[in-house]
């Protein structure tokens, strides 16, 4: 999900005198005029909070999966693959392109995009593998809200992967495909896939087996954690979507 693409003509090279390769290899610079000091601290704090909540949610899910030992059964393998794929790696893929993200803050733009792509592809492959493991093990699929939201997440994950190629090569394909168009659709597909996976996870937490293991109160706390970090992760992509959409409409 390419949530923070930067155009050469709008950042640091308004006259277009710097080549694409030179621009993407620059070290990122955060403007001193970009919002108030309090806003920067708030955004950084939200980012830290998202990482903490992701770690807690993924960690508890893995503890539940391995509680009965190994080898893992089909359901537990499904949980491990999907949670690591969707909630861990895809979350980090989104956050890698967001401002004030700790581990990627000082990466060059080209390296941020590489990190985003690697995390997104690996996360998507693991998540889809986890979904297909469950689909093949059951005779009836997608008959619950958990499964139905998972199906939507699967479809949009595949669409986001393919669309990511056109977004990655947006500069090279600019003569035949508007760069912002491929990026906008990539953002939309990614947001839908990620949000649907989070909703599906919440319905998974609400199942009796997990509730009995973790207690209802702790289950509802994890659901709240999932909703909170999901919202934090998609804030920047949503703003980027509106910014690029308005830019396209004005042209």
Q: What can you see in these coordinates?
A:
- It is a multi-pass membrane protein.
- Its EC number is 7.2.1.3.
- Residues 42-242 form the Cytochrome b561 domain.
- It is an enzyme of class 7 (translocase).
- With 251 residues, the chain is an all-alpha fold.
- The protein has a single domain, classed as Up-down Bundle (Four Helix Bundle (Hemerythrin (Met), subunit A)).
- Helices cover 71% and strands 0% of the residues.
- It has helices spanning 20-24, 37-66, 74-95, 109-137, 145-168, 179-205, 208-214, 216-250.
- Helix 4 (109-137) packs antiparallel against helix 5 and helix 7 (208-214) crosses helix 8 (216-250).
- It starts with 19 loop residues before the first helix and ends with a helix.
- The relative contact order is 0.14.
What secondary-structure arrangement, pairings included, does this model have?
Blueprint: H1 20-24, H2 37-66, H3 74-95, H4 109-137, H5 145-168, H6 179-205, H7 208-214, H8 216-250
Helix pairs in contact: 2-3, 2-8, 3-4, 3-6, 4-5, 5-6, 6-8, 7-8
Large-scale geometry:
globular
Mean of residue pLDDT?
85
Strand composition percent: under 5%
The arrangement of helices and strands along the chain is HHHHHHHH
Low-confidence stretches: 3-18, 29-33
| Radius of gyration, whole Å | 19 Å
Q: Give the beta-strand count.
A: 0
Gap between N and C termini, in Å? 24 Å
Main pleated-sheet profile: none
The CATH class label is Mainly Alpha
Oligomeric state of shown chains: single chain
**Structural class of the secondary structure composition?**
mainly alpha
Kindly state the percentage of residues in helix: over 70%
Overall tally of structural domains? 1
CATH overall fold name? Four Helix Bundle (Hemerythrin (Met), subunit A)
EC number: 7.2.1.3
Transmembrane segments: 48-70, 76-97, 118-137, 149-171, 183-206, 218-242
GO molecular function: metal ion binding; transmembrane ascorbate ferrireductase activity; transmembrane monodehydroascorbate reductase activity
Pfam family, one: Cytochrom_B561
């Amino acid at each position: 999900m390419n949530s923070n693409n930067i155009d050469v003509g709008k950042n640091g090279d308004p006259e277009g005198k710097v080549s694409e390769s030179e621009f993407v290899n620059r070290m990122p610079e955060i403007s001193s005029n970009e919002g108030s000091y309090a806003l920067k601290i708030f955004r950084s704090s939200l980012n830290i909070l998202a990482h903490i909540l992701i770690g807690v949610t993924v960690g508890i899910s893995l503890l539940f999966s391995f509680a009965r030992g190994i080898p893992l059964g089909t359901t537990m393998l499904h949980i491990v693959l999907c949670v690591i794929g969707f909630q861990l790696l895809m979350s980090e893929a989104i956050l890698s392109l967001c401002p004030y993200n700790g581990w990627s803050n000082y990466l060059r733009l080209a390296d941020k995009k590489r990190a985003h792509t690697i995390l997104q592809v690996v996360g998507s492959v693991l998540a889809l593998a986890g979904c297909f493991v469950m689909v093949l093990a059951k005779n009836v699929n997608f008959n619950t809200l958990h499964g139905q939201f998972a199906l939507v997440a699967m479809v949009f994950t595949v669409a986001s992967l393919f669309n990511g190629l056109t977004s990655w090569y947006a500069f090279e394909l600019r003569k035949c495909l508007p760069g912002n168009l491929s990026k906008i659709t990539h953002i939309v597909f990614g947001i839908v896939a990620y949000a649907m996976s989070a909703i599906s996870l919440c319905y998974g937490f609400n199942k009796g087996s997990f509730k009995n293991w973790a207690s209802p109160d702790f289950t509802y706390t994890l659901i709240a954690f999932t909703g909170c970090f999901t919202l934090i992760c998609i804030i920047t992509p949503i703003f980027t979507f509106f910014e690029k959409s308005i830019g396209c409409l004005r042209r």
